[in-house]
Amino acid sequence: xxxxxIMHTILLVDDEPExxxxxxxxxEMEGYGVVCAGDGVExxxxxxxxxxxxxxxxxxxxxxxxxxxxxxxxxxxxxxxxPIIVHTxxxxxxxxxxxxxxxxxxPVDAIxxxxxxxxxxxxxxxx
Length: 127
Hints:
By secondary structure, the chain is an alpha/beta fold. The chain has one domain: Response regulator (Rossmann fold, 3-Layer(aba) Sandwich). 39% of the residues lie in helices and 18% in strands. The protein has four helices and five strands. The chain has a five-stranded parallel beta sheet with strand order 2-1-3-4-5, with helices on both faces. Helix 2 (40-49) packs parallel to helix 3 (66-75). The chain is globular and about 30 Å long. The mean pLDDT is 88.
């Protein structure tokens, strides 16, 4: 499954370096640009310093968790329309779905992961 010729940049946010490494390699093999962050604080800095088309974030992380990251991004007009996938081993609290577009439970199959990303990048490009 190769992505479109246009390279999209994805920000991966997770406090587990092994998860970041595996998904970064898979996404790069699919033709995506990838930026990684270890928590929400680092993710905000990376988003503010460069362009990203999609964010995939863990839910439970130190310093700033995925829920707070989503809330802060959606409150910033310049990032409010960047699609977000929550990638977590726990279920995010109900009622916060307006802050993200999809939630994938760990472990997730690579095909499911890539399909969700491709759909959101395509949708974001059509807006």
